[in-house]
Amino acid sequence: MSTTQNSGRWPHEAPPAGQDRWSWRPQLLSELPLIRRELRRSLVADTSDAAAEQEEELHERLVLLMDELLSNALRHGRAPVAGLVRRTASSWLLVVSDAAATVPPHPDPDRDPARGGLGLRMVADLTTAYGWCSDGGRKHVWAVLAPA
Protein backbone atom coordinates (compact mmCIF):
# COMPACT_ATOMS: atom_id res chain seq x y z
CA MET A 1 0.00 0.00 0.00
CA SER A 2 1.32 3.45 -0.82
CA THR A 3 2.28 6.03 1.78
CA THR A 4 -0.55 8.22 0.52
CA GLN A 5 -3.00 5.53 1.51
CA ASN A 6 -1.48 5.08 4.95
CA SER A 7 -1.50 8.81 5.77
CA GLY A 8 -5.24 8.93 6.48
CA ARG A 9 -6.02 10.60 3.14
CA TRP A 10 -7.71 8.65 0.42
CA PRO A 11 -6.03 8.78 -2.99
CA HIS A 12 -7.84 10.95 -5.51
CA GLU A 13 -7.94 8.65 -8.53
CA ALA A 14 -10.44 6.81 -10.69
CA PRO A 15 -11.31 3.21 -9.85
CA PRO A 16 -10.02 0.34 -11.97
CA ALA A 17 -12.25 -0.96 -14.73
CA GLY A 18 -14.71 -3.71 -14.01
CA GLN A 19 -17.91 -5.33 -15.20
CA ASP A 20 -21.10 -4.11 -13.48
CA ARG A 21 -22.79 -6.88 -11.49
CA TRP A 22 -25.28 -5.44 -8.97
CA SER A 23 -26.45 -1.98 -7.96
CA TRP A 24 -28.69 -0.19 -5.49
CA ARG A 25 -30.00 3.33 -4.90
CA PRO A 26 -30.84 3.54 -1.19
CA GLN A 27 -32.51 6.61 0.20
CA LEU A 28 -32.59 5.60 3.87
CA LEU A 29 -30.31 3.76 6.29
CA SER A 30 -33.20 1.40 7.00
CA GLU A 31 -32.78 -0.04 3.46
CA LEU A 32 -29.28 -1.38 4.21
CA PRO A 33 -30.38 -4.72 5.78
CA LEU A 34 -32.28 -5.58 2.57
CA ILE A 35 -29.27 -4.61 0.45
CA ARG A 36 -27.00 -6.82 2.59
CA ARG A 37 -29.39 -9.78 2.13
CA GLU A 38 -29.67 -9.20 -1.63
CA LEU A 39 -25.91 -8.96 -2.00
CA ARG A 40 -25.34 -12.15 0.00
CA ARG A 41 -27.90 -14.03 -2.12
CA SER A 42 -26.39 -12.71 -5.34
CA LEU A 43 -22.86 -13.67 -4.31
CA VAL A 44 -23.94 -17.20 -3.36
CA ALA A 45 -25.83 -17.63 -6.63
CA ASP A 46 -22.74 -16.41 -8.51
CA THR A 47 -20.38 -18.92 -6.83
CA SER A 48 -19.81 -22.53 -7.84
CA ASP A 49 -20.49 -25.21 -5.22
CA ALA A 50 -16.79 -26.16 -5.20
CA ALA A 51 -15.71 -22.60 -4.37
CA ALA A 52 -18.54 -21.70 -1.97
CA GLU A 53 -16.72 -22.48 1.28
CA GLN A 54 -13.51 -20.73 0.20
CA GLU A 55 -15.43 -17.64 -0.91
CA GLU A 56 -17.62 -17.31 2.22
CA GLU A 57 -15.20 -15.08 4.15
CA LEU A 58 -14.53 -12.92 1.10
CA HIS A 59 -18.26 -12.51 0.53
CA GLU A 60 -18.86 -11.48 4.14
CA ARG A 61 -16.12 -8.85 3.89
CA LEU A 62 -17.63 -7.59 0.65
CA VAL A 63 -21.07 -7.25 2.28
CA LEU A 64 -19.56 -5.51 5.31
CA LEU A 65 -17.63 -3.04 3.16
CA MET A 66 -20.58 -2.23 0.91
CA ASP A 67 -22.72 -1.63 3.99
CA GLU A 68 -20.09 0.69 5.46
CA LEU A 69 -19.60 2.70 2.27
CA LEU A 70 -23.34 3.06 1.68
CA SER A 71 -23.89 4.02 5.32
CA ASN A 72 -21.20 6.72 5.07
CA ALA A 73 -22.71 8.10 1.86
CA LEU A 74 -26.19 8.23 3.38
CA ARG A 75 -24.93 9.89 6.58
CA HIS A 76 -22.27 12.24 5.26
CA GLY A 77 -22.89 12.58 1.52
CA ARG A 78 -25.70 14.13 -0.45
CA ALA A 79 -28.59 12.34 -2.18
CA PRO A 80 -28.95 10.56 -4.43
CA VAL A 81 -26.71 7.73 -3.22
CA ALA A 82 -25.86 4.72 -5.37
CA GLY A 83 -23.89 1.53 -4.70
CA LEU A 84 -22.38 -0.67 -7.37
CA VAL A 85 -20.53 -3.98 -7.28
CA ARG A 86 -18.24 -4.69 -10.21
CA ARG A 87 -16.13 -7.71 -11.05
CA THR A 88 -12.57 -7.27 -12.32
CA ALA A 89 -10.38 -10.05 -13.69
CA SER A 90 -9.21 -11.06 -10.21
CA SER A 91 -11.17 -9.12 -7.60
CA TRP A 92 -14.34 -7.30 -6.59
CA LEU A 93 -14.73 -3.55 -6.92
CA LEU A 94 -17.19 -1.59 -4.78
CA VAL A 95 -18.17 1.89 -5.91
CA VAL A 96 -20.48 4.13 -3.89
CA SER A 97 -21.44 7.53 -5.22
CA ASP A 98 -23.29 10.58 -3.94
CA ALA A 99 -23.87 14.18 -5.00
CA ALA A 100 -21.30 15.72 -2.61
CA ALA A 101 -18.74 15.77 -5.42
CA THR A 102 -16.31 18.18 -3.75
CA VAL A 103 -16.28 16.53 -0.30
CA PRO A 104 -13.59 13.80 -0.16
CA PRO A 105 -13.68 10.83 2.18
CA HIS A 106 -12.05 12.00 5.38
CA PRO A 107 -10.86 9.22 7.69
CA ASP A 108 -9.34 10.36 10.96
CA PRO A 109 -6.24 8.20 11.58
CA ASP A 110 -5.80 9.59 15.11
CA ARG A 111 -9.39 9.10 16.22
CA ASP A 112 -9.95 7.26 19.49
CA PRO A 113 -11.69 3.96 18.61
CA ALA A 114 -14.04 4.48 21.57
CA ARG A 115 -15.54 7.44 19.66
CA GLY A 116 -16.53 5.32 16.66
CA GLY A 117 -16.33 6.58 13.11
CA LEU A 118 -13.68 4.08 12.04
CA GLY A 119 -15.47 2.78 8.94
CA LEU A 120 -13.14 4.29 6.37
CA ARG A 121 -10.12 3.01 8.27
CA MET A 122 -11.70 -0.46 8.29
CA VAL A 123 -12.36 -0.25 4.54
CA ALA A 124 -8.71 0.71 3.97
CA ASP A 125 -7.47 -2.12 6.19
CA LEU A 126 -9.59 -4.82 4.49
CA THR A 127 -8.96 -3.90 0.86
CA THR A 128 -6.06 -4.02 -1.55
CA ALA A 129 -6.74 -0.58 -3.07
CA TYR A 130 -9.13 2.30 -2.51
CA GLY A 131 -9.70 5.87 -3.57
CA TRP A 132 -12.17 8.44 -4.74
CA CYS A 133 -12.86 10.67 -7.70
CA SER A 134 -15.56 13.00 -8.90
CA ASP A 135 -17.21 13.57 -12.23
CA GLY A 136 -20.47 14.98 -13.47
CA GLY A 137 -21.36 16.39 -10.06
CA ARG A 138 -20.92 13.00 -8.34
CA LYS A 139 -18.33 11.71 -5.88
CA HIS A 140 -17.31 8.07 -6.32
CA VAL A 141 -15.69 6.30 -3.36
CA TRP A 142 -14.29 2.91 -4.29
CA ALA A 143 -12.48 -0.09 -2.85
CA VAL A 144 -11.00 -3.26 -4.34
CA LEU A 145 -11.38 -6.55 -2.49
CA ALA A 146 -9.25 -9.43 -3.72
CA PRO A 147 -9.30 -13.07 -2.61
CA ALA A 148 -6.80 -13.86 0.14
What does the largest sheet look like? 5 strands, antiparallel
The share of residues in extended strands comes to: 15-25%
CATH superfamily: Histidine kinase-like ATPase, C-terminal domain
Low-confidence region ranges: 1-7
Measured as a percent range, the helix fraction is: 25-40%
Q: Under CATH, the topology is which?
A: Heat Shock Protein 90
Q: Kindly report how far apart the N and C termini lie.
A: 15 Å
Q: Structural class given helices, strands, pairing?
A: alpha+beta
Q: Give the CATH architecture.
A: 2-Layer Sandwich
Extended strand count: 5
The CATH class name reads Alpha Beta
Strand order of the largest sheet: 1-2-3-5-4
Element order: H for helix, E for strand: HEHHEEHEE
Instruction: Count up the domains.
Output: 1
| Mean model confidence by pLDDT | 87
Q: Given the C-alpha coordinates, what overall shape results?
A: globular
Question: Roughly how many Å is the radius of gyration?
Answer: 15 Å
Description:
- With 148 residues, this protein is α+β, with helices and mostly antiparallel strands.
- It has one domain: Histidine kinase-like ATPase, C-terminal domain (Heat Shock Protein 90).
- Helix content is 34%, strand content 23%.
- A five-stranded antiparallel sheet has the order 1-2-3-5-4, with helices on one face.
- Helix 2 runs antiparallel to helix 3 and helix 3 runs antiparallel to helix 4.
- It is globular and about 40 Å long.
- The relative contact order is 0.22.
- Keywords: ATP-binding, Kinase, Nucleotide-binding, Serine/threonine-protein kinase, Transferase.
- This is ATP-binding protein.
- It holds the Pfam family HATPase_c_2.
